[in-house]
Design brief:
The chain is α/β, with parallel strands linked by helices and 394 residues long. The protein has a domain of 224 residues. Helix 1 crosses helix 4, helix 1 runs parallel beside helix 12 and helix 7 crosses helix 8. The longest helix has 17 residues. 46% of the residues are buried. It comes from Mangrovimonas spongiae. This is Asparagine synthetase B.
């Protein structure tokens, strides 16, 4: 999985997942040649690699033993993690197509990793309990329809989306979309606390935390829910309810395309040509979880925008790990934390290979980006629940 010898990093994750589905174990060699996978040598696996265009090397048992001995040396920042079982994956998404693409569903499809979809009704009926890993993408759990009001309130898709959301909330017994979305966010919270894995990108990251922190407080203006917001609602926000963020200031104006001060989009002073974030280095033997999530063939990754591009570093809770950051701009791009028995990862931005992805833009063709380090971070999270867990030491 290094930069020099792997032709298709993304499909390599699919091969690993496919192997796990066959009830075979895989060793993930953390920090060894870009985070390589040690798979059993079978003709079927070799053939599948050839079909999918994934580079591989056949090695002897003695060479494998030598590699594992090298990795186990205390002087090497490496570790071999056993992957045991293919996780059951679900993506939270409304039925039908939206005007935006979801980077995670695109890369899962490209890597040939199977997934199912789920939405509000099934979430509220505890449907998440059937799955190990949940993805949230371009979502708004606050009931403000993505804060698209100013630019798109007359667009047919916006009007239709609002109408459908209101109809669904009424069907499920809620007076407002914001109340229904809060109930969904709480179910997702409980899923993670109970041991689930949640991976969120773009606006699902901050809108999820904001919704939880505004429990019992109306932060929606009349064009969103038909009545006035709670007076002085900023002072009634409960940061104890959130997963990752604290002390943020909500954006009150419906005419501003922003939820809060968490997002760095409007505060960025980085030109596209120098917009990169760096992955942090962790101890593979002592901190295998963040090490797994940061496996890559480069430590420097191209930045990319989104409704929520990145996170204000000063508004991230102290118990949340920052795994990718742009220090010069004081922003975190990639963060991870523990909630109850489960884990969450937030990844800022919309599409790692489409710098600004605007409404109506064509989708990314991953055939053109088979070695994308930005997309590799997503797939690290997909395989993470397959790992035999070791207790985190620090």
């Amino acid at each position: 999985m290094d930069a020099e010898t792997q032709k298709n990093h993304l499909k390599a994750y699919g091969i690993t997942y496919w192997t796990l589905e066959k009830q075979l174990k895989v060793k993930w060699l953390l920090n060894y040649r870009g985070g390589s996978f040690l798979l059993p040598d079978t003709k079927n696996i070799q053939r599948e690699c050839q079909i999918r265009g994934v580079s591989f090397e056949v090695i002897s048992n003695s060479k494998a033993e030598k590699i594992l001995n090298e990795i186990s040396s205390p002087s090497k920042n490496m570790e071999a993690i056993v992957l045991e079982k293919a996780p059951k994956i679900v993506v939270y998404t409304p039925r039908g197509k939206l005007p935006w693409d979801d980077a995670v569903t695109m890369v899962l499809t490209y890597a040939e990793i199977p997934y199912e979809t789920i939405y509000d009704e099934d979430v509220l009926n505890d449907g998440l309990l059937l799955f190990d890993w949940l993805h949230l993408h371009h979502e708004d759990f606050t009931g403000q329809y993505g804060k698209f009001y100013r630019n798109y309130r007359s667009a047919a898709w916006y009007i239709e989306e609002k109408k459908e959301a209101e109809a669904l909330a009424a069907k499920l017994g809620y007076n407002k979309v914001s109340d229904e979305k809060l109930a969904v966010a709480k179910k997702i919270r409980d899923y993670v606390i109970g041991g689930g894995f949640m991976f969120a990108m773009c606006s699902a990251t901050d809108s999820f935390d904001i919704a939880l922190s505004a429990d019992g407080v109306d932060i929606c203006e009349p064009m969103f829910d038909g009545d006035a917001s709670t007076p002085n609602y900023q002072n009634k926000i409960n940061y104890n309810n959130t997963f990752a963020f604290t002390d943020y200031i909500l954006e009150r104006s419906p005419m501003v395309y922003e939820f809060s001060s968490i997002d760095m989009t409007s505060k960025r002073i980085i030109p596209k040509t120098t917009d990169y974030f760096s992955l942090m280095e962790f101890s593979a033997k002592w901190d295998p979880v963040p090490t797994m999530l940061c496996q890559n063939h480069t430590a420097l990754i191209k930045g990319f925008m989104g409704q929520t591009t990145s996170f204000t570093r000063d508004e991230i809770k102290s118990n949340v790990l920052i795994m990718g950051e742009n220090k010069t701009n004081g922003e975190a791009k990639y963060i991870h934390g523990i909630k109850g028995k489960g884990f969450f990862t937030f990844y800022g931005g919309h599409d790692p290979e489409d710098y600004t992805h605007r409404v109506g833009d064509p989708k990314t063709e991953l055939d053109l980006h088979p070695t994308s380090p930005g997309y590799r971070l997503i797939l690290n999270n997909v395989l993470f629940p397959a790992a035999k867990k070791k207790k985190q030491k620090t």
